Automatic annotation (TrEMBL):
Residues 344-371 form a coiled coil. GO terms for molecular function: efflux transmembrane transporter activity; porin activity. This is TolC family protein. It is found in: Cell outer membrane. GO terms for cellular component: cell outer membrane; efflux pump complex. PANTHER family: OUTER MEMBRANE PROTEIN TOLC (PTHR30026). The keyword RNA-binding does not apply. Belongs to the outer membrane factor (OMF) (TC 1.B.17) family. It comes from Ulvibacterium marinum. It comes from the Bacteria. Keywords: Cell outer membrane, Coiled coil, Membrane, Transmembrane, Transmembrane beta strand, Transport.
Length: 456
């Protein structure tokens, strides 16, 4: 039994370790961010409210229906509901009714309210989708930063491994009297510098992982990590299109532009609703009411109504409901005449809001065009920078090989050799940085062209 318990604990701990060692892909990071972002949840609630507003607008076309009932008892000087005579007594009564009404015409405001509610639902959907687009870009950028830092750290460790071999070989040459001790000190100083590079690289990886985890709203920084993968320069035809072509296409599907366009349409509906207050409103109504009372009713004596006093009687509850019921129905018109310029001022405010939203739409288009032009230039420039860094790296590698050959035969001192190695290290780090800078900016430009973010 004890062995079984130990085995269960071991399996449980292995399961925890496996879960803790999960490494996230870009797709998993994006999916998680979209499912757990608090702002997205708030925007989704706004969208639900917009759907409810749409239901309210549809309900405005339907007639209202209500019912009422009351029971009361009064003593003292009361009004007999049967005779309408004020007399001392005690009255018990109950009444019930059904009321219905319907707006026939209100300056078409109900129609404009429905159309506005539909547009508002659409606008909230565009706003939500635009936020998701921004999150995808931010997650991709942070993800690539982690990958870039990890790749740089691999280079630093590989360089340090080579330097360790140089230290070992140089130490042997110094001990045999072939090289001076100063060369060993120089190589050891280079190794110490590379160790510091590794420490800094590990810190950069940790900080970039924390930044990505915070973006995903994950608090377990220590166990969060991304998949160990290396991305090559992806092929892309997006640069076959001009920045103007990319901008024209972006205008047709970008959610931020759609959101601004819908805001203009919403402002137009608000103006129509405000103008509708200048028109009269027409309502139809129908009411049915009945009551019961414990008071006696009087009727003339059927035998001799002139000489004999009236006969008093009290009808049953059901009979009174039929005898005392009544129906009213009709139409009511309200014509606005003057309300302190409130309607006129609302129309003026709506016109101002419409112009403001039109200006915002044009500003958003200008911002989008600027962003696309900048992204287009960035892709071109960063690719050239990457190519230049790659050429520099190739040259530094040849120079390093040549320097190492000279150093091994004693034709170069340790200081010059360490300088050659440092220049190679810097060139390799620059290639990694420019490669991922180019990949991200290429993906941004493709995103503006309607190509989903994906890293192959």
């Amino acid at each position: 039994m004890k062995s079984f318990a130990i085995a269960v604990l071991i399996l449980f701990s292995i399961g925890i370790t496996t879960a803790q060692q999960k490494k996230w892909t870009l797709e998993e990071c994006v999916t998680y961010a979209l499912q757990n972002n608090l702002t997205i949840e708030q925007f989704e609630l706004d969208l639900e409210n917009a759907v409810i507003d749409k239901s309210d607008a549809l309900g405005a076309f339907l007639p209202t229906l209500s019912s009422s009932a009351s029971v009361s008892e009064r003593s003292g000087l009361v009004t007999n509901p049967n005779t309408n005579i004020i007399e001392p007594g005690q009255i018990f009564s109950t009444s019930a009714g059904i009321n219905s009404g319907m707006r026939i015409f209100d300056g078409l405001r109900n129609i404009h309210q429905l159309n506005r509610a539909k547009l508002n639902t659409l606008a909230n959907q565009y706003r939500l989708d635009d936020l998701k687009d921004d999150i995808r870009l931010n997650v991709a950028n942070s993800y690539l930063q982690v990958i870039s830092n990890k790749e740089s750290l691999k280079v630093f460790r590989a360089q340090y491994a080579v330097t360790e071999q140089d230290v070992k070989r140089t130490k042997e040459l110094v001990e045999s009297g072939v090289l001076p001790r100063g060369d060993l000190l120089e190589i050891e100083a280079t190794a110490a510098s590379q160790e510091q590079q590794i420490v800094n690289g590990e810190n950069q990886v940790l900080l970039s992982r924390i930044a990505l985890a915070q973006l995903l709203q994950i608090t377990d920084y220590e166990n969060f990590d991304v998949a160990d993968e290396e991305f090559n320069i992806p092929p892309s035809d997006v640069l076959n299109n001009s920045a103007k072509v990319i901008f024209d296409k972006a205008l047709t599907f970008r959610n931020d532009i759609k959101f601004s366009e819908t805001n203009v349409e919403l402002a137009e509906k608000d103006l129509q609703i405000a103008k509708g207050a200048n028109y009269p409103t027409i309502d139809a109504f129908f009411n049915y009411n009945t009551f019961y009372t414990n008071q006696f009713q009087t009727i003339p004596d059927p035998v001799d109504p002139v000489n004999n006093p009236p006969l008093a009687f009290r009808a049953d509850f059901i009979d009174q409901l039929w005898l005392n019921d009544g129906i009213s129905y009709g139409f009511q018109m309200n014509i606005p005449v003057f309300n302190g310029w409130a309607t006129r001022n609302n129309v003026r405010r709506s016109k101002i809001n419409l112009e403001r939203n039109k200006l915002q739409l044009e500003q958003d288009k200008l911002n989008l065009e600027t962003d696309i032009n900048q992204a287009y230039v960035d892709v071109t420039n960063f690719f050239k920078t990457y190519e230049a860094a790659q050429k520099t790296l190739d040259a530094r590698r040849l120079a390093y090989v040549y320097a190492k050959e000279r150093y091994d035969v004693g034709l170069m001192n340790a200081f010059d050799f360490s300088q050659a190695q440092a220049r190679l290290d810097n060139a390799e780090a620059e290639v990694i940085r420019t490669k991922y800078d180019y990949i991200f900016r290429l993906k941004v430009l493709e995103f503006y062209f309607g190509i989903p973010i994906a890293l192959d």
